[in-house]
């Protein structure tokens, strides 16, 4: 957002738009395709990919209109405040999203595992060992090796922490009016995020091929891939957001005073960093 508030209306109300309906329809197609895909229907993968492509097109067009409205001077200080509250509540919803996953991990490790390994349940599952990374009480899970913190998870932690530093430097450069410095450090942040995802992809291949750790490897495998996979998805989204912001920086959209588009993406990226720190400790160390 880079419009001058002085020339903006008291509050801007956009006209009727088809984008919300199209976004809902494309997301519905995406989920129907995903559901059919995992249930073995041949058309599911095509429907899922078509839905994803349609969603990306809708978002590109919809956000493009919002950018034009901002650059056209239609957004006042009150609209800016509404964007800030909206982004804050969105990040809060993401906090609750990950809190549910961390809660599932806590329940499996601290409630279910001791309960299944107590004396009463030894009569039902005598071979069950109450140690995290177990193969389940029935012993039906193929043997696997748990994932440790070295070396890739620790390297990825350093990469995300460093990306938070480079993004902060970029933000300060934008506030000081140094556009080229802003673009350089923002590009460095995106590169660090891409390297993070490359290491995570390698980690997954290593887990599948050498550790036999799969999504079907009991509660350990499902919680591991659920937490790390969704976090990786959020890193990817954050990198895309920062790439869009970089394009706008190079285009000259932002000013030192008005740049909430940059700030909103930066908030999201810092949130992703904090989630990873918790995930790194709970999933890889404990």
- For this structure, the CATH topology of the largest domain is Four Helix Bundle (Hemerythrin (Met), subunit A)
Q: What's the domain count?
A: 2
- Low-confidence segments, given as residue ranges, are none
What is the overall shape?
Answer: globular
- The overall strand count is 0
Main sheet summary: none
At the first level of CATH, the class of the largest domain is: Mainly Alpha
Strand content: under 5%
Output the structural class. Answer: mainly alpha
Q: What is Rg?
A: 23 Å
**CATH architecture type of the largest domain:** Up-down Bundle
Percent of residues in helices comes to over 70%
What report would you give on this structure?
This protein is mainly alpha-helical. The protein folds into two domains: 1-75, Helix Hairpins; 76-285, Up-down Bundle (Four Helix Bundle (Hemerythrin (Met), subunit A)). It is 72% helix and 0% strand. It has eight helices and no strands. α1 (19-38) runs antiparallel to α2 (44-71), α3 (77-116) runs parallel beside α8 and α7 packs antiparallel against α8. It is globular, with a radius of gyration of 23 Å.
